[in-house]
Design goal:
Layout: E1 2-4, H1 6-14, E2 21-24, H2 29-35, E3 40-43, H3 46-53, E4 61-64, E5 82-87, H4 92-104, E6 109-113, H5 122-127, E7 137-140, H6 142-150, E8 155-159, E9 165-166, E10 176-181, H7 189-194, E11 197-200, H8 212-231
Parallel strand pairs: 2-3, 5-6, 5-10, 6-7, 8-10, 8-11, 9-11
Antiparallel strand pairs: 1-4, 2-4
Helix pairs in contact: 4-8
Length: about 230
């Protein structure tokens, strides 16, 4: 896969990724050589990079990597694990932002449902600002992921606008799966049926809802506060 962007390149290097080939503009050759000292680096015109990666948002660097998807059984889980399930979320920009947010808050992995969701794309990795390289991103059927988690003692929390319970009034416990649906259709009925707790994020303004990436960020704030209060004397 061809991916691009300076921050993406930096995070890939930090994660130990060694690209097969690197294309960069002349002014950032030293940057490229510094983070990928053992890769073949070609200095080319920025227009060529745009043509190669089919985007103008490359910031002067693109590189070729192997993206090997893990499976859920490959993930190391513990009593403090937190999995984020994206059920039928389709916007690659939102998914990239969610990967970045979830990795920042220490999530164990991201699971993108096989149903009505996109494959991993360069644009998604770019939107994650390279966080993609620091957290497992898995494609699995939502129902299968929830069954896997429940068999290992996870509690399933679903965030849905139709819920009666407010997330801020909920005592969250780990290990947990946090489930989020796409903005148009929300969570599937099957995910809601399999959930232990269904909650909503209440607002105080006139806007009816958050987009899914903002909802994930808000949920981690609520989760962190809930767990902190639980552990405080």
């Amino acid at each position: 896969m061809l991916v691009y962007g300076k921050q993406v390149a930096k995070e890939a290097s930090r994660a130990g990724v060694r690209p097969k080939k690197v294309w960069c503009k002349r002014t950032i050759y030293d940057f490229a050589k510094g983070i990928f000292p053992n890769s073949e680096i070609r200095v080319v015109h920025p227009k060529i990079i745009s043509s190669i990666c089919k985007s103008d948002e490359h910031q002067g660097i693109a590189f070729e990597i192997d993206v090997r998807m893990k499976k859920i059984h490959d993930i190391e889980i513990g009593l403090d694990s937190c999995i984020v399930l994206l059920d039928r979320v389709q916007d690659v920009g939102n998914i990239g932002n969610i990967i970045r947010t979830s990795e920042f808050f220490g999530a164990t992995c991201i699971v993108i449902s096989k149903e009505q969701s996109p494959d991993i794309t360069p644009a998604m990795i770019k939107s994650s600002a390279g966080a993609f390289f620091h957290i497992p991103v898995i494609k699995e059927k939502s129902e299968e992921l929830i069954k896997f988690a429940k068999n290992r003692g996870f509690k399933i929390y679903s965030f849905d606008l139709r819920a009666k319970t407010d997330a801020k009034d909920t005592k969250f416990e780990l290990p947990a799966v946090l489930c989020f649906g796409g903005e148009e259709r929300g969570l599937s009925e099957k995910v809601l049926e399999l959930s232990d707790v269904v909650v909503k994020i209440s607002g105080y303004g006139k806007t009816e809802s958050l987009n899914v990436s903002s909802a994930v960020a808000a949920s981690f704030g609520i989760l962190t506060k809930s767990l902190y209060n639980k552990s405080s004397p």
